[in-house]
Every structure is written in structure tokens, then in C-alpha cells.
Amino acid sequence: MAYRVEVQKDLCISSGKCVSDGPKVFRFDDQELAEPISETTEYELQSLLKLARNCPGEAITIFAESGEIIDHS
Ligand code: SF4
Q1: How far is the CA of 58 from the centre of ligand 1 (A)?
Q2: Domains identified in the chain and CATH numbers
Q3: N or C: which end of the chain has fewer CB within 10 A?
Q4: What residues flank ligand 1, with Cβ below 6 Å?
């Protein structure tokens, strides 16, 4: 199943946690703020939820393909 991941960049404190723990899902933009690598990901849901919950800025939200919010950090 595919999920959509969103980073609220105004909440990102550039900790790098999501980028180092989920390098297939997140990367830094040219301002050192995290962003999803692609619009949707098939990364395992439990791992996505862990990445969201470990974000110190509470900036990550996981959506189902339907648009429903699965988790907000
Ligand atoms: S874990 Fe959160 S605060 Fe840290 S880089 Fe990722 S989105 Fe930004």
C-alpha cells in the first residue's frame, strides 16, 4: 500500500532524524529542511509511523492514499 508523507517545513528544526533514519523517504532541501523524496512511498507503515513520532519538531504527517490522516507526529 502506498502512503503520502508530508513535512510542515515551518515546524522542521533540521534535526536530520528523519533523513538519517529514513533515507529512502526523506532528504534535505537546499535550506536543510526535510522533504519527502517522492509524492508517495510504499515504505512500511510501522516504519513511517516511527519516523513521524520521532520527529522532534512534530512536523511529519502520514496520509493514506485516500487522503485520510493516519498519524501526525
Ligand atoms: S525529524 Fe522532523 S525536525 Fe528533524 S529533519 Fe525531519 S522533519 Fe525536520
Answers
A1: 8
A2: 3-72 (3.30.70.20)
A3: N
A4: 7, 12-19, 34, 55-57, 59-60
pLDDT digits (tens, 9 = 90+) for 13-72: 999 999 999 999 999 999 999 999 998 999 999 999 999 999 999 999 999 989 999 987
Query: Among residues 44, 41, 34, 30, which one has the least CA distance to residue 7?
Result: 34
User: Can you tell me whether residue 48 is helix, strand or coil?
Assistant: helix
Q: Looking at residue 8, what is its pLDDT?
A: 98
pLDDT of residue 73: 65
For a pocket test of ligand 1, which of 10, 14, 50, 54 has the largest count of ligand atoms closer than 8 A to its C-beta? 14
Q: Whose CA is nearest to atom 8 of ligand 1?
A: 12
